[in-house]
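Annotators were shown the component list below and the corresponding predicted structure, then asked to write short factual statements about the assembly.
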Amino acid sequence: MTGTAAASAMGPASAPPNPALVKIRDVIYQVAGIFHPDNKHRLLEERCSKRMQVLGVASLRDYYDCLTFKATRQAELTALLNEITIGETCFFRNLPQLDAIRNVVLPKITAARAKSSPRHLRIWSAGCSTGEEPYTLSMALLEEQKKHLKDWTFEILATDLNERSLAHAQLGHYGTYSTRNVPEPFKQKYFLARDRELHVTAEVKANVNFQQVNLSDSTRMAFMKNVDITLCCNVLIYFDSVSKRRVIGHFYSNLLPHGYFFLGHAESLYGVSEDFRLVHLPGCTAYLKSAEKTVAPEKARPQ
Amino acid sequence: MNVRESLLKELEALDRMPTLPASLIPLLRYMEQPDETLDLQQVIELISQDKSLAVQCLHMANSPLFGRSQTVESIRDAVVTLGLQRMRDIAASCSMLAILPSENAGMDPAILWEHSLGCALVCRQFARAIGFPDPAKAYLAGLLHDVGVVALLWILPTEFSEALELARSEHIPLHEAELRVPEITHAETGKLVAERWRLPAEMVSVVACHHDPRGATAYRDLVALTSLSDILCRMNGLGHGSVEDREVDFEEEPGFGILLQEHPQLRSFDWARFTFEMEDFMEEVHRLVSLMYHPS
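Structure shown to annotators:
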């Protein structure tokens, strides 16, 4: 490894990032709500360079202009976001998030709903793409049913706009790449190996309900009710701020009072929703639907 | 005399535990100035005063990760190779290393050290983000806030490792586990050590009250800032090697209410972004600590 490469990998202490890249990072966060920490700058730079090659743009400074001033900025931003989120979907993609759901969120929800009936959990994977996320959730919940959720039933609503993705999801056949993070016991239990592929078992599929839903369709959104947990990863980044606010408003009202809303890694709702409460869970963040927000003003004490 | 009183008495008489290297605080304070006003010669002299620090700097500068083609033999070259920012973290880490017992009951000291260094970086960054007037002081507060853990490692290693195990297996905060065994928290032991070392009063307050900032009677801003940074670290993989299975709303933490009085901009603070930015600290901290602790 060369000294320069090592220094940039070591983060902000030694190598100040390119100012144009920092500006691009800030535009992406402002517009799409997805944040690239300094240690991901090289990755961001690679993705920008791919687009710069396509456009024939020589410098990051000029590319920043393409994203902000030029008439085609909206299309270019979408193209860059496509580069950023490409190939991201796989089983057990966001383990801290999954662990937080298993170890903190589900116990809280079941405690809050202990007296309610039916004892049925509804989890919504909004923008489920080819099905890796809803099936991961289904497997995790099947495991929990043997431990803490013995007398609970559950369903995973899995929606996407793209019909081809949904068809792939419903078939439930996956290659080695998207199943690379699946723990071995889960592979044995919840997949059947067929012709170099892994097929999701009927047991896992039984709890997943696929539907085609356009998140911008307000009428359709109004029918999604009584949700305990919504996951919407790397989808809202494509919405402009007005539609994003509207969609978030729907997500908020679709949730039950104790419900949780999850975004993708390093995605944030800052400046988009004042209704949700940001909470920190071990290794990830989530948004909580809760009316009883109280910030007690601190009384001054004599020093 | 109950268990706690006898423990505290024993701790007061504790003289096995080494003190912080005398050069640490002046060096850290000096290095907090903007880089362009720093006198390199002054930095080199301060580092050279502490032999173990000087040796560690040379070792780090010669690590393949910082890859110089020629061997680094002088402190000046080491400082140039590593950069001033990283020098400060190495100095802080050496000081932590100097006070940790070499024999330990099952605890990897690197874990404590990672938490302290991580908290120091988060404290300083947080201080800058909210306009806290003295980020250097915040850095030092983060570095020293858990000095009581070091005291427990010296005085009650077996009981402390039980507390650590309890925190890990039940996914609860360390100070809650300590209340069950050894029935004394690192905030209490830390207060005694900090007073014994004659640390500045604000540091004593941080060490004693970082788990109960409302209990602080002085320097409440610094205590609150450290308290919030400590929780951020613990919730984001820089705890004491354990995961706390709980949910934290920072705006409901006692430290938030206290800080808000003097720093109204905290009301609209972007906690999500700050948390994402922490990824950088974590990477840096893991690398520094593993380089220094497990030299290859």
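Statements collected:
1. Strands of chain A lie at 120-126, 153-160, 173-174, 191-194, 197-200, 208-212, 227-232, 255-263, 277-281, 284-288.
2. The two ends of chain A are 54 Å apart (CA to CA).
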